Amino acid sequence: MSSIETVPVASQARAAAPSEIRRLLREPSAVIGATIILFFVVLAVFASWIAPYDPNSPDWMAIRAAPGAAHWFGTDDLGRDVLSRVIFGTQASLAAGIVSVTVAVLIGLPFGLMAGYFGGLTDMVISRFADALLACPFLVLAIALAAFLGPSLQNAMIAIGISAVPVFVRVARAETLVVCTEDYIAAARSQGLGHLAILTGQVLPNVLAPTIVQATLTMAIAVLAEASLAFLGLGQLPPAPSWGAMLDVARQFLGEAPWMAFWPGLAIIALVIGFNLMGDGLNDALNPRH
Amino acid sequence: MKRTGTALAAILMIASGLVSASAATLRVGIQDDPDALDPALSGTYSGRFVFAALCDKLVDISPDLKIVPQLAEAWEWSADGKSITFMLRKNVTFHDGTAFDAAAVKFNIERMKTMPDSKRKAELAPIASVEALAADKVKFNLSEPFVPLLANLSDRAGMMVSPKAATEKAGEFAAAPVCAGPYQFAERKSRDLIRVKKYPGYWNAARVGYDEVVYYYVPDSTVRLSRVRAGDLDLAERIAPTDLKTVRDDPNLALHSGQGLAVSHLMFNVGAGAKADTPLGKNSTLRQAFELAIDRNVINRVAFNGEFLADNQMIPPSSPFYDSARKAPARDVGKAKAMIAAAGMTRVPVEIQYENTAGDSRVAQIIQSMAGEAGFDVKLLPMETTTAIERYMNGNFEAYIGNWSGRADPDPTLVAFFSCAGSQNVNKYCNKDLDAILNQARGEADEAKRKALYAKATDIYLTALSSIPLHHPNWFFAARKSVGGIVMVPDGLLRLVGVGPVN
Amino acid sequence: MKTLLLRRLAVLLPTLLLVSMMVFGLLKLLPGDPALALAGEERNPEVVEYLRQKYRFNDPIPVQYAVWLKALVHGDFGTSVRTRLPIGTMLAEKLPVTVELAILSMLVALLVGLPIGIFAALGRGTPFDYGASLFGLAGLSIPHFWLGIMLILLFSVNLGWLPAGGFVPPSESVGRNLLSMLMPSLVLGTGTAAIMMRHVRSAMIEAMKQDYVRTARAKGVRESTIVLRHALPNALIPVVTLGTLQFGELLAGAVLTEQVFSIPGFGKMVVDGVFSRDYAVVQAVVLCTAAVFLLMSLIADVAYVLLNPRLRS
């Protein structure tokens, strides 16, 4: 498990504009990252059409069959097609990346905004909690939460999401602090705008860009975390395929069926690279300092 | 960079070669970290595995499940079966040098019956009182005839600890147990290793081959095996069935295998709370259809490389009380479908819970697939162990894959699972006739008559099928060829008397 | 400087207290009755109830917490309910294992991350730089447990060079100890090496743009001297900070690596603890890890100030 790395992003008062999308398209890493993610999205959405076999139907006569013409990636311990399971496994991993980060942003962003905007006691309470959560090992927290909620993909996503909340609290708080020193916030205040209006109308749009960058990078970590939880038996319920769970099973057959371990791992790496590249690209495009 | 790496590796290789373990140490890889090392408290197989070195028992079991002497040299039942007298081995001392005698036996039995968190209470429940008749003679008075008592005394309930140590160190006894076995406790690093060294005063010390035994906690079966292959360990217990080929192919290793007492079975909730209210919970015909829908041999072949024993009974075939007349039915999907139709259904839903381990997970998925073909819509619910145990004990499941370690005598297993008040009867099956038969059998000293009673019991529980037995796991140890004298016993414990290095 | 240190130290304890409360609360919410898990296969109801009383599982959670905290203040971490061994002793046994793993991993990270980062920065835009970027990306993206499995497959299963797992204490044999730590530290170090490489590269690029480098260059100082004397020391400042921070991360990140290689360290202890509901064990490990983590970030901040002449005043 990689650690969650907060990316420092300089903030500028600006709204999203078409020019930024053009800038994004000039970032090769963003384009490659987006292509990889798109590839997996297509795999996930059209899995039933793309996969050569039913991912869950076993073949007792072809247990741990080596890769060949019938099964390109071989079969697993129950004679199921590994290629089809890798393709269908995309659904769990993508969902984990997107849903858990959405959960984290939805909780973390408002708290971060409040902490940065109101300061004082609000800031202290929120920041202490965020610090305490950050000090706990991320994966241990996710494991405990997942064990608490019970095994299922949905619960694993919630557990990862909650564990990632403090990252977004930090990012949003730091950006809000910077934004709040800007003249136009003081101007808005003097015009008698309410806190909520300023927060949503003036602060939020400026905090959004670094949050999106952080979210994309956190998706990479969430995909890894889901795989880790599934590896420990706290994710997708069987027989539905999940890359991490496939690796857990594969570990028992390293000598005789190494193909069971190879492909799911490769899929995880590819998807995580996609999110990381996309995050790097977004960072470069939305962050004019570079 | 590359050259430095090679040099570093070379240095490491040399360094590792220089320091090889001394020849008289037996290094054993065990799958679980044992719990409390006190026979009264222990509840794990790995604990028993270590006790085989530390603590001798009143009696032992032989490979063919006969009761044989250990600390007791002989015993005699009274005519009415309500008392048993043991003649104790003389000149036996505990590891602290104190004498093992009738008073020590009395102390131990009473300790295990009265300690508040003793796990031996049920096993010793029929013992009403213990009398020390002489230094080497002790009599147990029973509240009712109880033939399985000897089998119970062949396990932790019969392990004798030093009364002196148990009294003086009451709370911390488990941290440094003092018994009368071939090896005495030396050190324990939790979740790492347990070291025991030869006890020179052991009554059978001449047959103890190693000076020291170290039990290393290595949870992963593949890792355990690879360490034996590398020579880091001399022996590893519970090798995964899928790894057996590796052991057989390695010229330096010997595979020691033997039939076990354990059983894996699919329990249906037939009477515990709301979860019993399912088609399968209410209708034994549907459960029979379920049995016909699955193929035990396929489960065994696919999940365990065919290395376990596919079987339809709770008692393993190695037991003298196994009912060989009751064969497992062959898979018959057509008949299963017909039985479902006769019950007025087309699809039968059921949710199977299990502890999330590699073996059970495979078994569950195979059952799901096979039962699905006959018309059972199986949902799977793997649970991490602690949660699974709680749900199991509370009857909070529709179906559950149970793993029972088994006992040398059929009584504890059958009573626990099928008598109305049985401790494992969490799915709440109850049949008064069966209760009566089981009760009669535990007081029946004649083996042939007892066997006939268990045949009747088997008929009843296999017709009701509140639980479908699936298979009996076999024991597999991988050992270096240099370890001699290993004898496999159905309880799967490594007895160290007679084991020693060979060239 | 002093006020910074004092302020940070003052925050440390309340944060740790908060960590312990949150972890305690979360653990107590977990389903599964530890008394049942402890009561053995027979699970005699009397024994189960006795265990619940003995370990105060029946008390209200705040009471349990207060009891735990009171013992902790007196230096008592409690007893593992599973093994009945004192947790203080367990920690003393496990901490060195994980610290060794973390140190060796950091060594791997430095040996791999530093040179690649420096040379990538110097050869910006060259194929080596692109290769380095790819390495950085891969290092961040490879799941540790998969890398571990692949290394076991290659070096243990196929080649038979290295033990597939397990831990040999250095007291038994230093050589075999290092051998058993080789793959785990490679696995754990890779991610850190990638992070290190990325930071060193950008810090180095930044440093090479600075005025003093331009001045030196204008004076005709040799390029190698510029790199070694001027750019590198400045580029290493963030590395010190990052390295300290990452060390705390490594301790926490050892969870799955220890799982894959069956290493009896902190990570394994805490995962096993969660699964067997050994509350006090999990509490102790999380608290220790959090304390190390917070201390490390404090040290990182102090080091940052100390190493930055501009901030020192």
Structural write-up:
- The complex is a heterotrimer of chains A (290), B (503) and C (313).
- Chain A is mainly alpha-helical.
- Chain A has 11 helices and no strands.
- In chain A, helix 2 (28-45) crosses helix 4 and helix 5 crosses helix 7 (153-180).
- Mean pLDDT of chain A is 86; it is low at 1-16.
- In chain B, 33% of the residues lie in helices and 22% in strands.
- Chain B has helices at 2-18, 45-54, 102-114, 121-124, 149-153, 163-168, 221-230, 244-249, 279-282, 284-293, 296-304, 333-342, 358-374, 385-393, 410-418, 432-442, 447-464; strands at 25-30, 59-61, 67-69, 72-77, 83-88, 127-134, 137-142, 183-189, 193-198, 212-217, 235-236, 253-259, 263-268, 309-310, 348-355, 376-383, 399-404, 467-472, 474-480, 483-484, 500-501.
- In chain B, helix 10 packs antiparallel against helix 12, helix 11 (296-304) packs antiparallel against helix 13 (358-374) and helix 15 (410-418) packs antiparallel against helix 16 (432-442).
- Chain B starts with a helix and ends with a strand.
- The model of chain B is unreliable at 1-5 and 8-22 (pLDDT under 50).
- In chain C, 79% of the residues lie in helices and 0% in strands.
- The relative contact order of chain C is 0.14.
- Chain C is mainly alpha-helical.
- Chain C starts with a helix and ends with a helix.
- Chain C has 13 helices and no strands.
- Chains B and C meet through helix 1, helix 4, helix 7 and helix 14 of B and helix 2, helix 3, helix 5, helix 8 and helix 11 of C.
Counting DSSP E segments of at least 2 residues, the number of strands of chain C comes to 0
Tell me the number of strands of chain A: 0
Describe the sheet with the most strands of chain C: none
Number of helices of chain C: 13
Count of runs of 4 or more consecutive helical residues of chain A: 11
The radius of gyration over CA of chain A amounts to 22 Å
State the largest interface: B-C, 55 and 54 residues
Question: Kindly, what is the distance between the CA atoms of the first and last residues of chain A, rounded to a whole number of angstroms?
Answer: 28 Å
- What best-fitting shape of chain A do the alpha-carbon axes yield? elongated
Major beta-sheet overview of chain A: none
C-alpha Rg of chain C (nearest Å): 24 Å
Q: Give the H and E element order of chain C.
A: HHHHHHHHHHHHH
Span of the ends, CA to CA of chain C = 8 Å
Helix content of chain A: over 70%
The SS-based structural class of chain A is: mainly alpha
What share of the residues of chain A does DSSP label as strand, in percent?
Answer: under 5%
Report the helical percentage of chain C: over 70%
Uncertain spans of chain A? 1-16
Summarize model confidence as the mean pLDDT of chain C: 84
